[in-house]
Amino acid sequence: QGQPVQSWSAWVADVEYDRASGELSVTRVTAGHDQRAGTTAAAAHATDDLLDQKQRALLGEQARLAMAQTLAPDQGFDAWSREVRPLPGQSSAGLPQVDLIGGGTTPALRDIQLKAGGAFTLPAAAAISNAIHAATGVRLREAPFSGEQIRLALQHQEGSGQRPGGWRRLRKYGWLGGAAAALGATLTLAMPWRAEIAPVARPAADLYSAATIERGRRVALAGDCAVCHTAPGGVANAGGHALQTPFGTVYSTNITPDEKTGIGNWSYTAFERAMREGIHRDGRHLYPAFPYTAFAKISEADMQSLYAYLMAQPAVSSTPPENDLRFPFNMRPLLAGWNLLFHKNEVFQPDPDRSALWNRGAYLVEGAGHCTACHSPRNALGAEQGGRQYLGGGTVDGWEAPALTALSKSPTPWTEDELFSYLRSGFSDRHGIAAGPMAPVVAELAQLPAGDVRAIAHYLASFQAPATSTTTPAPITTTSLNESQKLSQANGKRLFQGACAACHIEGTGPTLFGVRPSLRVNTNLHSDTPDNLIHVILHGIREPANPVLGYMPGFANSFSDAQVGDLLAYLRSEFAAGKPAWEGVPESIARSRAQAGH
């Protein structure tokens, strides 16, 4: 005690910088530390049982935290949340490898000497700065460091040879160039045939950095690529999933890097054109069931990363079925006119009057997430409606995608926390469980950093009805029932008590198969249509967004159409009091059975 301590600490860092995406990451750190004190004799007698693997893990975590603090978080709308620890079930491949080297003569003594606090992490910034200089030739002298700083420095180096005054002349005629570019883009959209982009060899596996591929994986998760591009029981992203539209059936394409049946021979230029303009590599127009109208908003860095990720996946040879669209909707050249009317090839622009969190959420919802593709109504030509109808509810594969704004039929207004819980876990105790096409979407979102899901929830919450200090319950209207209706509801009540009450009855009782969702706040029971509820009753929830939620069996083979109708009548009157009885129930039941082949 009171003895002076001499400490030495040295770090060597390996960094990766991807010029295409602007991603900067630390991939490996070698950290060495030693110290000398006047009272090292006590330490020298330390026993080997002090060699604690947990202690080493904590030191490695300390090194990773130092790295994270040395890298500047990008504040742009396309910045992905940084997480030092991976989500449960994920590998730590995206985290830097840390090798610890200590001094001393025994393993126990080395671990004791590595306990140095601030002295251990002091060289972190210098190590990263040196590594950046070695990799790029750019010397950054003040932490935290970012890929944006490197990009600007490289641009300055490359542009230093330009003649003075060139920028001023460019600005003078900039408006003319902008007008010409806008006119050219409009005419390009109106072209019924586009030129083929020549095929290329599949990019080498090591062309893109691990950080860029990881970023692309997150873009793919936010965009639910595998949800639409994977057939039931098929290989991920190999295509063949049937997308039902009012104009016929469109089958998703193979987006694995197979060179014959997938996108393995697509250059980045061809990939970006498809994502932003809806044009195949061979020049064909893509149907807007593929939401390029939303993907056009993705930033260049995210687009590059998504391409890198897809090209790094296993190639699968798979040819999806041919589309089955009615005439004239099967005439691809007509889509040029559709694009001219309804598509804007523009990258997302943040709102300067909104917070960074709101803009981040808007970017994810409007861009990669393409939430409007399902949750906004469409006009007669299949284009999404905006304005007051933005996120006002739509249909997908026979399911109602409810409104995500104040137009929601939910009896309880959505809050940011409820939205976050639902999108993160697939369940909200004030709204219900994610089912149908939404369940796999939630399963994808659950793998994103929590900060990004929070941004989505924050953005969507801004469209909810403003909270009031006092709420007046809506009056419950009662209508007289004829004998047939009374009998139907009585039969429905018996069915509920025998098949549903064990899991859905309110009050005390065991939780048998997962969560116990309340039916009184379930959005489906308050909807204007019974479709979602019919789907769940007949087909159950076989693959919940989260296994903890539990499995719900389907009753398609147990209940007749009449019994399903009776159960619906009871559920509507009991748990959505005041709502009128649903109409067209027999037709909805028949559609649901036909959709599943029952």
UniProtKB/TrEMBL annotation:
GO terms for molecular function: electron transfer activity; heme binding; metal ion binding; oxidoreductase activity. It comes from Herbaspirillum frisingense GSF30. Gene3D superfamilies: Aldehyde oxidase/xanthine dehydrogenase, molybdopterin binding domain, Cytochrome c-like domain. The keyword Membrane does not apply. The keyword DNA repair does not apply. This is Cytochrome protein. It holds the Pfam family Cytochrom_C. InterPro entries: AldOxase/xan_DH_Mopterin-bd_sf, Cyt_c-like_dom, Cyt_c-like_dom_sf, Cytochrome_c-type_DH. Keywords: Heme, Iron, Metal-binding. Residues 211-314, 356-464, 487-575 form the Cytochrome c domain. The lineage of its organism: Bacteria, Pseudomonadati, Pseudomonadota, Betaproteobacteria, Burkholderiales.
